[in-house]
Amino acid sequence: MITIAFSLDSFWEFISFPFVWGLAIGLALMMFAMWSHFKTKREFSRFRRHLSDKLELEAKQYEVVRKEKEQLAKENEHLRVQIATLNEKPDNKILREVEVLARAERQLMISAPGFGAAWETAKTNAVAELEAEEQGKSLPKRIFRKFFGTTGNREMVEALPAGSDLDFAGDGHGKR
After folding, report:
1. DSSP helix/strand/coil, 14
2. Which three-class secondary structure string do you get for 156-167?
3. CB 81 within 8 A of CB 75
4. If you count Cβ atoms within 10 Å of the first and of the last residue's Cβ in the chain, which end, N or C, has fewer?
């Protein structure tokens, strides 16, 4: 039988071979590369989890924003229909016409040299402004609502004397 006996002298002799040095350096570099690989792999999986969590949060936020947008669009459409319905009432048609005339007069005061043409231009511009407000393209700038209030003729009726024979409210309580 062959017995291998290692002694301290034979160990130093074994280490002195260039192949052993190359093998030792190669193994050390391989261990360092494997350690770096596993460290990078662990960091990569952490980044993947982070990205997944971020995408989930953004998806939830997007869903909330989308639902809010849908709700606001429905509310906007409802308000647009409600404005169109209210504008069809006779009292509101009269108030709208008074509003057109008031805006036209205001614009005419600024540019008064040629009354006829300026009046038609001002009236057309006032109608366009009101249509833009009714469609929601601009903010409302009502002039006569400040004077008459939001209820239309109701405040005008209350301002009449008690003995008046006019019936603006249409409730049949006025004298004829």
Report:
1. helix
2. HHHHCCCCCCCC
3. no
4. N
DSSP per residue, 117-136: HHHHHHHHHHHHHHHHHHTT
Single-letter amino acid code for the residue at 68: E
**pTM for this model (two decimals):** 0.37
The string of pLDDT tens digits covering residues 74-107 is: 999 999 888 888 777 777 777 778 888 878 877 7
CB–CB of 152/91 below 8 Å? yes
Q: What is the dihedral of CA 41, 42, 47, 50, to 10 degrees?
A: 150
How far CA 19 is from CA of 15, 52, 61, 69, 121, in Å, comes to 9, 48, 62, 73, 101
Enter the tokens of residue 48.
Answer: 């993947």
Measure the CA–CA gap between 98 and 7, rounded to whole angstroms. 117
Helix (H) or strand (E) holding 67: helix 18-88
Residue at token pair 């002799």 = 13
